[in-house]
Amino acid sequence: MALADATDFGPYQAGALIGILKHQLKIGESYAVITGVAVGAINGYILSTFESYAIEDCIEFLKEFWFDLAKIEPYKLWKGGFVYGFFFERGIYDISPMENYLIEKFEGRTVVQHLTIAVTNILTGAFTTFTEHLGHDDMMKILQASISFSGVSPAIEFNDELFFSGNAIYENDVMAAINHCEALGYDEPDIVIDSIVGGSTELASFHPHVENSFGVMRRASELWKFYDTMHGVMRAKNGHPKVNFRYVIGPSFNMPSKFLPLQYTLTETKQLMDHGERDASRAIVNLLNYPEEELNRRLTHPTTIKYYNQER
After folding, report:
1. Across-strand partners of 162?
2. What is the pTM of this model?
């Protein structure tokens, strides 16, 4: 499972993940390798702390995490206010409430699945990954870095280096999931990738004969967003042509932009989580009940996300 940057849609991603987990519960399937970037690292970490036989507990914990987060203010102004934070701190806002929330929620939790989290090293500019081998306290530091966004909140110091969210470089680290599977001894045809991305997985139709210059500009923006969203999947597919890409799920509606990431009301959390679960259920139903139609759709898709092992 590759969980993309979910800066503006953490509860949506959790809902989509819940939709897949409910299906896995029915068929006796579970994930062996999980990767996450930015807020996707949070949902990925939660998933990685549950054994394959505890899917129901994982679903409940995902819900609890996001609904409890909606009850707090994850950011606060520095004592000197907004202007002080802008000029004299490494971030406009103090994110210590969110950091404390992570420590409290994840106290005593242990990673029991294979996990990779990617963050940005500010000093070197490297897209840096950390795995399940980190100790608990160090893992908390990396999770804090995953939700530290440039300019909004301070970078996290770890091992004499500074880190913030990996989404400054890549939105989705699908390659890490594949590489991790290969390191475990799996061949490409035996690897199945599911991914929850941060934008639409479909391009809307375009009718140039009825569009003016503003319509063309809007189309250019749509294309940029689409390929930015799908870059991680496309990059991994081109580099590993025999890997099976099964579910690639993204919001079926335009996601609202948040001035501050992670700040949701209870109503927004429920709506986003419900949307995510519905989109995941729809993707599963389409693949199981209409496989030929889904195959044809993928063959004509701009990024040609298609089956390489149709039986799987």
Report:
1. 157
2. 0.90
